């Protein structure tokens, strides 16, 4: 891969669910009412989203429904907060009247009730010639329908400040992506696993960006931008894997083995990383754990991290205790012990970064 694009699609995809084959089936979802007048819902195009999927062989699972999908129409009648920016390709065969009906904008306060009422009416009629058909839209984890609430929270509910933050982020994203990953410094960072993903298939641990700080400190000062690129790519890869695009999360494990903080830890690397991460990936950090850091130098490390804001700092854990690492990152202590310690556990779960490495 020579060019890396953001893992959040900038245009929606579309899902249509027809009950023609099984008119009495239940959808198999729990819905979220997005018609309560909350400012956090202002960029959601419809008034109901999928909160979770019910277990079992349901219509939703068979149709590929995912958490966060937005209901926008029932049997060709729209229940939208605002008109679509992108037309559903399947609407190409509709006449203008049908398109207008499907894209109907409904008043705030009437959307959710209207949507649910229409579904109930169609199901209740039981007309085999008019089976229930639901139209949904799906947005990427970094698109406003999913991301706006994160930016709003990062600015403590201040709408103008959150809007300004979001606009700056969109400008940054347009300037940053696609990224060219073929330069030698990025390849070396990824190949050496100086920055990589810790994969935990089979347990509930939150995906984690692993940073081998000793290896990064050995790099020349002009390689810091390549470190940031590698970190961005790894973060994007991990956030895409979130089952819920509204709340993508990643942890970060900063491995300080073989790094002596009192001997001169390079704070410029973390400063540059967080100068990009904080304003562009708000509310996606679960925990950032720095280990091992002795109690003697913990205060020094904390002072070095004073450049991050209060919200982010509250998610930082600086420790020399394995128990604390496991608790904060959700790692199974029994497996860590069975592996022989943190270093061996990390080596077991560290991904090879092959999909991101390009050899010229």
Describe what you observe in this structure.
- The chain is of the alpha+beta class.
- The chain is 38% helix and 16% strand.
- The protein contains 14 helices and 13 strands.
- The protein has helices at 59-62, 96-102, 111-125, 144-154, 159-176, 184-191, 213-217, 224-240, 267-280, 295-304, 310-313, 322-329, 333-339, 342-349; strands at residues 3-4, 13-18, 29-33, 48-53, 70-74, 77-78, 133-138, 179-180, 195-198, 208-212, 250-255, 285-291, 316-318.
- The strands form 3 sheets. Strands 2, 3, 4, 5, 6 and 7 form a 6-stranded antiparallel sheet that branches.
- Helix 9 (267-280) links the parallel strand 11 (250-255) and strand 12.
- Helix 6 crosses helix 8, helix 8 crosses helix 9 and helix 13 crosses helix 14 (342-349).
- The longest helix is centred in the middle third of the chain and has 18 residues, at 159-176.
- The radius of gyration is 24 Å and the shape is elongated.
- 34% of the residues are buried.
- The mean pLDDT is 92.
Layout: helices, strands, pairs:
Layout: E1 3-4, E2 13-18, E3 29-33, E4 48-53, H1 59-62, E5 70-74, E6 77-78, H2 96-102, H3 111-125, E7 133-138, H4 144-154, H5 159-176, E8 179-180, H6 184-191, E9 195-198, E10 208-212, H7 213-217, H8 224-240, E11 250-255, H9 267-280, E12 285-291, H10 295-304, H11 310-313, E13 316-318, H12 322-329, H13 333-339, H14 342-349
Parallel strand pairs: 10-11, 11-12, 12-13
Antiparallel strand pairs: 1-8, 2-7, 3-4, 4-5, 5-6, 5-7, 9-10
């Amino acid at each position: 891969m020579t060019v890396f694009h953001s893992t959040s699609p900038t245009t929606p995809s579309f899902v249509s669910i027809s009950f023609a084959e099984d008119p009495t089936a239940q959808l198999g979802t729990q819905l979220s009412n997005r018609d309560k007048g909350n400012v956090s819902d202002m960029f959601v195009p419809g008034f109901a989203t999928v909160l979770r999927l019910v277990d079992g062989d349901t219509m939703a699972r068979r149709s590929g429904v995912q958490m966060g999908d937005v209901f926008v129409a029932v049997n060709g009648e729209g229940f939208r907060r605002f008109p679509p920016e992108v037309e559903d390709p399947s609407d190409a065969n509709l006449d203008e009247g049908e398109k207008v009906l499907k894209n109907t904008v409904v008043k705030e306060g009437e959307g959710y009730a209207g949507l649910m009422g229409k579904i109930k009416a169609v199901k209740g009629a039981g007309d085999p010639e008019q089976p229930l058909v639901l139209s949904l839209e799906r947005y990427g984890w970094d698109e406003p329908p999913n991301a706006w609430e994160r930016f709003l929270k990062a600015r403590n509910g201040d709408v103008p400040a959150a809007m300004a933050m979001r606009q700056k982020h969109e400008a940054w994203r347009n300037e940053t992506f696609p990224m060219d990953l073929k330069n030698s410094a990025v390849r070396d960072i990824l190949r050496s696993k100086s920055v990589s993903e810790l994969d935990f298939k089979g347990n509930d641990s939150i995906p984690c960006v692993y940073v081998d700080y000793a290896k990064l400190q050995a790099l020349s000062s002009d390689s810091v931008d390549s470190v940031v690129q590698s970190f961005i790519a790894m973060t994007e890869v991990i956030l895409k894997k979130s089952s819920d695009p509204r709340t993508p999360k990643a942890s970060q494990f900063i491995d300080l083995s073989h790094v002596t903080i009192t001997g001169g830890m390079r704070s410029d690397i973390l400063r540059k990383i967080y100068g990009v991460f904080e304003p562009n990936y708000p509310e996606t950090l679960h925990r950032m754990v720095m280990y091992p850091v002795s109690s003697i130098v913990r205060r020094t490390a904390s002072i070095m991290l004073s450049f991050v804001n209060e919200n982010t700092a509250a998610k930082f854990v600086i420790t020399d205790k394995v128990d604390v690492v496991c608790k904060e990152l959700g790692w199974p202590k029994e497996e860590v012990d069975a592996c022989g310690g943190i270093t061996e556990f990390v080596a077991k779960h560290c991904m090879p970064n092959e999909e991101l490495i390009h050899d010229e």
